[in-house]
Design goal:
Elements: H1 3-20, H2 36-39, H3 43-64, H4 66-75, H5 96-105, H6 117-123, E1 124-131, E2 137-143, H7 144-160, E3 168-171, H8 179-191, E4 194-195, H9 203-213, E5 217-220, H10 222-234, E6 246-249, H11 258-268, E7 271-276, E8 287-288, E9 300-303, E10 308-313, E11 327-333, E12 344-353, E13 365-367, E14 378-380, E15 383-385, H12 387-395, E16 400-410, E17 416-424, H13 431-445, E18 450-454, E19 469-471
Parallel strand pairs: 3-4, 3-5, 5-6, 6-7, 16-19, 17-18
Antiparallel strand pairs: 1-2, 7-8, 8-9, 9-13, 10-11, 11-12, 12-13, 14-15, 16-17
Helix pairs in contact: 1-3, 3-4, 7-8, 9-10, 10-11, 12-13
Length: 475
């Protein structure tokens, strides 16, 4: 059989497999769950779905992705060797560095995708790009098959978040780089939501839209939600008295950073919901919240296991960790035509629980949500910590504004040091504020930091992911 025939056959088998497990695709089955038989499936049922899809996706990868075929051959594995979730540990985790090396050697698209130029020309939908610390772009050409499954999966997730027909969605990002927001928009079509486009506006214009046209759901990054709320207050408007009942966040951690979440909820007087994911293992949000996500002492995020396999691995050995222990997220994407990645290291720290949620959903939950990606880990003179820990410290001091910046530099003696820049109304006499912030940082991170207190509105605001860290250290 020619390679082209094998490629077509493995794709057909994979599509047939997806079709077998596609339920309630066009519309929700009831008010509690979009798809009760999937969202509340037993653990055995979920594993059976994963195994069926995995057995179809590995031959599809082998025949359609040179990157995967070369890796299978190098490891001495056949696609049939990875036919169930129990087989996954045989396959070493793939990280961004390995993917970037492939993109560098095979520009512009790399070979880790299953889409070639002919596929892209005949059924391409949208190109998204994600780059690592080296700046080498990793490009993903998603198809209309991906888009259809994206709509369905994200609609199921937004249904969990109690977003319903009758809500009016106001998305507030520039759409170019936001794979998250494109997923929200296609899901809004499936949900039959009314949408007010919010790109290409400044915060004052968006505040005016909220005041005039009364959206019920706004979608933006957590940092932009804080900024927009302050702009509304400056205009004499009260965000908490607005029409907004749901603040839908993505792009940055919010749920797992308690003081940030509470600050947002107090400012807006509404509930916060969150999506979690990454460009590489779409089409799907990845993680999403439910009405019970903040009921107890620990917040959590659901993961949709009938379309992805989620694991946690040790940060050093990259071997699986037991349920309840902290590790880095690894995802195998089962429903993507163009990017069915096998054990891709997403790289966020969390712990997993397979206990059924109070909402009735049976899929695994990330307890404590997500607060620190391995890529973001800072190392200052051997002490390791996450920007999210600095964020918790900054938020703990009364009167400190929403924006902050972490500056790493090397002093005249060659010592690496950290300065945290915050905004406060009392910046003219900022000594007490600086001392309080420094003490909170020392308590939470066990590191000493200089603190610079600035006038309000000194630091830059952005509707995209906030860039909190500026590393100016000498190498």
């Amino acid at each position: 059989m020619a390679k082209g025939d094998r490629s077509m056959r493995t794709r057909a088998v994979w599509l047939e497999t997806l079709e077998r497990h596609r339920r309630d695709f066009e519309r929700p089955a009831d008010d509690a769950y979009w798809s009760p038989s999937l969202d509340a499936a037993s653990r055995d049922e979920l594993t059976a779905i994963q195994n069926d899809k995995l057995a179809a996706v590995t031959p599809f990868l082998y025949e359609n992705s040179p990157f995967y075929r070369t890796r299978f051959d190098r490891l001495g594995l056949a696609p049939t060797d990875i036919a169930s979730v129990e087989d996954l540990p045989k396959w070493p985790v793939i990280d961004k560095a390995e993917m970037m090396a492939d993109a560098t050697a095979n520009p512009p698209y790399g070979t880790y995708s299953t889409i070639d130029d002919d596929d892209w020309a005949s059924r391409g939908w949208m190109l998204f790009s994600s780059s690592g610390s080296t700046g080498v772009p990793r490009v993903f050409r998603y198809t209309h098959v991906d888009r259809e499954y994206w709509e369905w999966a994200n609609a199921r997730a937004m249904w969990s978040m109690r977003i319903r027909p009758g809500d009016v969605l106001f998305p507030m990002v520039g759409f170019g780089p936001h794979v998250w927001m494109w997923g929200v928009m296609v899901a809004a079509d499936r949900l039959k939501l009314a949408v007010i486009p919010g790109g290409g506006m400044d915060a004052r214009a968006r505040a005016g839209i909220i005041e005039r046209f009364k959206p019920t759901v706004i979608a933006c990054t957590p940092s932009y939600a804080l900024y927009l709320g302050r702009v509304m207050q400056d205009q004499g408007l009260d965000p908490a008295a607005s029409s907004v009942t749901t603040l839908f966040t993505g792009g940055e951690p919010a749920m797992g950073i308690e003081r940030t979440r509470r600050r947002i909820e107090e400012l807006w007087g509404c509930r916060t919901e969150e999506f979690y994911g990454c460009t590489e293992v779409s089409p799907h949000v990845g993680g999403f919240t439910c009405p019970h996500a903040t009921d107890g002492d620990t917040v959590f995020t659901h993961l949709m296991e009938d379309i992805q396999v989620w694991e946690l691995v040790d940060a050093d050995t990259r071997t699986p960790v037991p349920e309840g222990e902290r590790g880095l997220t690894v995802c195998t994407s089962l429903n993507s035509e163009s990017s069915p990645q096998l054990r891709f290291l997403v790289g966020d720290y969390t712990t997993f629980s397979t206990e059924t949620c109070a909402c009735g959903r049976s899929h695994v939950r990330a307890m404590g949500s997500f607060t620190g990606r391995a890529d973001d880990l800072l190392n200052l003179r051997g002490i390791k910590f996450f920007p999210s820990q600095i964020e918790q410290a900054v938020r703990a001091v009364d009167g400190v504004r929403d924006e902050f910046e972490i500056v790493l530099s090397t002093d005249g003696s060659g010592l690496d040091v950290m300065t945290v820049r915050v905004e406060h109304d009392g910046h003219h006499n900022g000594g007490p504020v600086a001392g309080a912030v420094a003490e909170q940082i020392r308590t939470r991170c066990e590191v000493r930091a200089d603190v610079e207190v600035l006038a309000p509105d000194t630091l830059a605001k952005t509707e995209f992911k906030a860039k909190r860290v500026r590393d100016e250290r000498r190498q």
